[in-house]
């Protein structure tokens, strides 16, 4: 009986190691899917690559900028992304009225983290280059965070961001 | 005869305007191809999105960073991109030994433009965060420019960048 179990065990080990080997080879040879700038926040939207690029577009096209900070391995970011990507009105507003940027790394501009660096968080920047720290989500401890249930507030905030700050610039 | 020509003309106008209309609708409804981070410089390579991200990777993975500045509407950039993307040895070196970043907008780091902001230009950054201003192309007036015929030199320069600067950091 013991001998029988041992040979089953050895056979299992052999099969597992063959499977592991072939899987390793497969991963190595597999073609990578090209990375997209949208990172899943709306493949049909046009995304800026960097903050510098986004600021240039915002100024030259006179549109507000929406910056989304997120992380691939953060479940809150992933849940917000899903809600954001499937909300047709948000996608339409974003497409027609905003310069868009999503970032997984912080920029050197401290104005983009008025109450700290956390994810997910969404900041708006006026075409006058002013960060709209006044446009906040519903949470007092993380003012720029949103959850999937906050899409109504996010839509309203997008509408607010469309009304530009009066500026002498 | 005149009447016959006129009706043919009117029919043509009608068909043309219908075609124009349906084309317009088609363009509007056409799905956009998601933008890729590679922008054609190697879809199988892994690209950083921003300079901050690239520096973080270079430092944490102890790999040199290669920054390619280019523009979509610059024929020199396009020609270099084509040569870069189809050079198998350059693609292999890039994949195995470098953190990669291609940018169409300048960063705020003046060290990345030692002799001015022009495209195309390629800069290497040591994992110690030092821009390798010593690794140059063949042109004295634009030291960091390369042309499609300079792929041998670019490969050699990539090999040089793999040899890290000695640093106290």
Describe this structure in words.
The structure is a homodimer of 169-residue chains. Chain A has 169 residues and is mainly alpha-helical. Helices cover 43% and strands 9% of the residues of chain A. Chain A has helices spanning 2-29, 51-61, 75-86, 88-97, 151-162, and strands at residues 65-69, 99-103, 121-125. The first copy, chain A, has a 3-stranded mixed β-sheet. In chain A, helix 4 packs parallel to helix 5 (151-162). The radius of gyration of chain A is 23 Å and the shape is globular. The interface between A and B is medium-sized, with 23 and 23 residues.
Largest contact between protein chains?
A-B, 23 and 23 residues
Order the strands across the largest sheet of chain A as they lie in space: 2-1-3
What would you call the structural class of chain A? mainly alpha
Percent helix of chain A: 40-55%
Secondary structure tally: strands of chain A:
3
